[in-house]
Amino acid sequence: MKRRGIRIVVESIAVFFALVIFGIPLSYVVTNAGKTPAEAATMTIQPSTTPQYVQNFSVVIKEYDYTLLRAFLNSFIITVFSILVLIAVSSMAGFVMERRKSRTVSWVNFLVLAGLMVPPAVVPTIWILKLIGLYKTLTGLVLVEAALSFPFSVLLYRGYLGAIPRELDEASFVDGCSSFRLFIDVIFPLMKPVTATIAVITAITIFNDFVNPLYFLPGSKNVTVQLTLYNFMSMYLTKWNLLFADILLISIPPLIFFIIFNKKIVSGMVAGAVKA
Amino acid sequence: MTTGTSKLYSYRFFIPAGIIYLLFFIAPTFLSFFFSLTIWTLSDWKFTGLDNFKIFMTEPSLVIGFKNSLIYAVLTCGLKVVFGFLLAAFLTTDIKTRGFLRSLIYFPNILSTIAVGIIFSSLMHPSQGLINLVLKAAGIPGPDWLGDPKIALLSVALVDVWKGVGIAMTIFIAGIQAIPPHYYEAIMIDGGSAFHKLRYITFPLSRSSFNSVIMLAFIGGIRTFDLIWVMTKGGPGFTTDLIASIIYKQFQGGFYGIATAGNVLLFILISIIAIPLYKQLTRVEVNL
């Protein structure tokens, strides 16, 4: 009985600290996003007496001739296409890497593992993009994002394929399946769960990415949501209510993903970290 | 089956991945070794030998980046490991609010780094920020978190830990859940306390989780750019500049050769530290 008492006290203290350290900064964003300009000067967690979320959102959206809407569109395009490219190339590569043991495969393996640690060489990448005419284009950024997410994704595919028995491949082969048909009709459908995990995790990573758009998409035409947030930061300076309204708006898509796919995100993060 | 292997698992499956990965990752990495030895305008280059590296090693505003990046990596990595492990150990015991706490602590990971940077720049504002208002109410004079050169780097590192500790915790939780329960039963029969369980079972049997977390957090820390860029831009002065923020500044200034040399130095630094660290960490695991 005494032990249970102690446990409840310990747990209450833990919940209290977690709410202070992690809950307050989050509720701080929500309350401040709805403040009036006068209230915004006092940066407290006291909710606004006359919250004006709709008005703040519309100011942020209309800013710079609706630049935020274009940013949302760009970010969605970049995210969706990067994932499509990434899944196509890494599922195929992961398939052969897991199934075949050879000197070539161990070299490929090494290059992929190195990609998890080595910092990307940004300026030479820009040089190559310029050379093939893709610098400052969404296509260029899509390809770079896919290349940088490739090592993580291929490791998840390789790990997952280990649990799919080879007998399946052999049976399909005996039935006269070509290797391409085997992959498209048998293997790829079986990998749906890990494909979903990769899609969800890279969606959040790429949507939230700031560094690559900063380097590869300079200029005002091709803004992404993170770039607008960064630009608004220097423009609004003390208008915290508008800044937080912007943060709230651009955090909604990842938040929805987190709520729906919580388990997938967590399991994928763990698998990726441990396989590496 | 040997003929089948090469036929079924054709290297042709590598071609699409190979093109993208070679073109946008491998080739730039190799090119960076060459272009780091030049004065480079992107359209033209002039070979200058090791001059760029000399500049990086002697210019005080650039040298500080190495020191700061190392401090930052060690600090964030250490704190993420300690707090991540303790949180995981606590959140694998049977408490009622376990699921809620795990989600709450993981949550900052889905916010963008820019958003987190802005939130904490506001919370850490010297006169109006919530943190200092609370400290003031308690009678403690709050420091200028991001403006005081002595603590600015530490402040940003703490924000990094706030954002990233959830991932460390999640990896540790997965490791702890994989420990067979009979170990704990054995120590309970021997009359061990909760501390004994943590010290003699959970801790030693989480070695591989420690490896993963240390590697991830350390490499992530030493490569950090966006959080420092949004919170301090390397200031005040150059006191919080990291290697990656210096690379960006040189890039902005059009010094592409120097920026690339910075990249190569980062590459070398990560290899020097990460490879022995990795070997050391995996060796300890084998000995166990």
Identify the notable features of this structure and list them briefly.
heterodimer, A: 276 residues, mainly alpha, MetI-like fold, 12 helices, B: 288 residues, two-stranded antiparallel ribbon, 14 helices
Q: Gap between N and C termini of chain B, in Å?
A: 39 Å
Rounded mean pLDDT score of chain A: 88
Q: What does the average pLDDT of chain B come to? A: 89
Q: Determine the CATH superfamily of chain A.
A: MetI-like
Structural category of chain B: mainly alpha
Q: The biggest beta sheet of chain B, please?
A: 2 strands, antiparallel
How are the elements arranged and paired?
The complex is a heterodimer of chains A (276) and B (288).
Chain A: H1 2-33, H2 37-40, H3 53-99, H4 103-117, H5 122-131, H6 138-161, H7 167-174, H8 179-190, H9 192-207, H10 211-216, H11 225-236, H12 240-275
Helix pairs in contact in A: 1-12, 3-6, 3-9, 3-11, 3-12, 4-6, 6-9, 6-12, 7-8, 9-12, 11-12
Chain B: H1 2-8, H2 15-35, E1 38-40, E2 45-47, H3 51-58, H4 60-90, H5 98-106, H6 113-123, H7 130-137, H8 152-177, H9 181-189, H10 194-202, H11 207-222, H12 226-231, H13 243-252, H14 256-287
Antiparallel strand pairs in B: 1-2
What would you note in describing this structure?
- The complex is a heterodimer of chains A (about 280) and B (about 290).
- Chain A is mostly helical and about 280 residues long.
- Chain A has one domain (about 55-275): MetI-like (MetI-like fold), CATH 1.10.3720.
- Chain A has helices spanning about 1-35, 35-40, 55-100, 105-115, 120-130, 140-160, 165-175, 180-190, 190-205, 210-215, 225-235, 240-275.
- In chain A, helix 7 packs across helix 8.
- Chain B has about 290 residues and is mainly α.
- Chain B has helices at about 1-10, 15-35, 50-60, 60-90, 100-105, 115-125, 130-135, 150-175, 180-190, 195-200, 205-220, 225-230, 245-250, 255-285; strands spanning about 40, 45.
- Chain B has one domain: MetI-like fold (Orthogonal Bundle).
- A two-stranded antiparallel ribbon of chain B has the order 1-2.
- The longest helix of chain B is centred in the last third of the chain and has 32 residues, at about 255-285.
- In chain B, strand 1 and strand 2 form a beta hairpin.
- Helices cover about 70% and strands about 0% of the residues of chain B.
- At the A-B interface, helix 1, helix 3, helix 4, helix 5 and helix 6 of A face helix 1, helix 2, helix 5, helix 6 and helix 8 of B.
